[in-house]
């Protein structure tokens, strides 16, 4: 397999080849993404919830995201590695946004960064980061960092006015230079209508089958998320239950005295043992 490049993604879009993106937050999830042959890996700020236990994405820090991203980098060789700029790390100024993006590239080995929103602030940050030489992925529709302002974790673009605004935001991000845009939680008809307006690679999550690719959260698709999941999630494994079951059987063995068995114990020469015990 050849490493994913930005021209490679554009070529996949042109050839109508679906692009596969998944999140990862540590070395083993990165190895799973690598082994599965996905095209793009996102160190999402969803890690705030999936691996750090926060109830929203806003609490995760740059320092924490750097740790997660570095671990993912060490597990990947072929997928493009995109890292989310966490809430509070890019809103203040273009300079702040560039400084944060540079840290993810320099300290964690990110190939690109992603930030949320398609309004004037986000568009300005996108231009500044791209001017500094770092590719940027946009994200419109349901943007979890500002979910409170959007009325919660709910589908977006369900009125004509709201759908038009999402289309305009996506266009503005593309004009600012985003190589790709995530479209989250919008009716598939709205996504389909926006697609012809966009030259950038569109990755959908809860946006129907018509986008250039799909992204899902690692823990959601493998059944490792606590609580209910969104309508768009499809679960491909039940790893949460399998993990709990494994730990439970270990605990049972320890309590029953059946672990460790002889095969888990180290030998010692009888003469050495006798001398030790003497
Ligand atoms: O943080 C994340 O996991 C994301 C994807 C769902 C697009 O932003
Ligand atoms: Na995110």
TrEMBL record:
UniProt GO MF annotations: 3-methyl-2-oxobutanoate hydroxymethyltransferase activity; magnesium ion binding; methyltransferase activity
GO terms under biological process: methylation; pantothenate biosynthetic process
Subcellular location, record wording: Cytoplasm
Binding site for Mg(2+): 45, 84, 116
Chief place where the protein resides: cytoplasm
Cofactor(s) the protein needs: Mg(2+)
Top-rank lineage group of the source organism: Bacteria
UniProt cofactor note: Binds 1 Mg(2+) ion per subunit.
Annotated metabolic or biological route of this protein: Cofactor biosynthesis; (R)-pantothenate biosynthesis; (R)-pantoate from 3-methyl-2-oxobutanoate: step 1/2
Function: Catalyzes the reversible reaction in which hydroxymethyl group from 5,10-methylenetetrahydrofolate is transferred onto alpha-ketoisovalerate to form ketopantoate.
Protein name: 3-methyl-2-oxobutanoate hydroxymethyltransferase
Species assigned in the record: Tessaracoccus rhinocerotis
């Amino acid at each position: 397999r050849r490493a994913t490049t930005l021209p490679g993604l554009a070529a996949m879009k042109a050839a109508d080849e679906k692009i596969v993106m998944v999140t990862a937050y540590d070395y083993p999830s990165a190895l799973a993404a690598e082994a599965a042959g996905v095209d793009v890996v996102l160190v999402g700020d969803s890690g705030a919830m999936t691996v750090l236990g926060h109830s929203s994405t806003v609490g995760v820090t740059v320092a924490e995201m750097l740790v997660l991203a570095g671990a993912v980098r060490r597990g990947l060789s072929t997928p493009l590695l995109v890292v989310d700029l966490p809430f509070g790390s890019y809103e203040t100024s273009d300079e702040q946004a560039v400084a944060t993006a540079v840290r993810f590239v320099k300290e964690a080995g990110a190939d690109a960064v992603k930030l949320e929103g398609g309004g004037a602030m986000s568009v300005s940050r996108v231009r500044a980061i791209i001017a500094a030489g770092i590719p940027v992925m946009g994200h419109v529709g349901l943007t979890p960092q500002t979910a409170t302002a959007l009325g919660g974790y709910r589908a977006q673009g369900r009125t004509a006015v709201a759908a038009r605004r999402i289309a305009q935001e996506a266009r503005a991000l593309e004009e600012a230079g985003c190589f790709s845009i995530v479209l989250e939680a919008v009716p598939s008809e709205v996504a389909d209508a926006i697609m012809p307006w966009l030259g950038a690679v569109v990755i959908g999550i809860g946006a129907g089958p018509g986008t250039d690719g799909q992204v899902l959260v690692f823990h959601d698709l493998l059944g490792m998320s606590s609580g209910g999941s969104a309508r768009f999630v499809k679960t491909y494994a039940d790893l949460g239950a399998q993990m709990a079951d494994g730990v439970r059987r270990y605990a049972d063995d320890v309590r029953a005295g059946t672990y460790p068995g002889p095969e888990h114990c180290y030998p010692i020469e009888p003469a050495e043992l006798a001398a030790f015990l003497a």
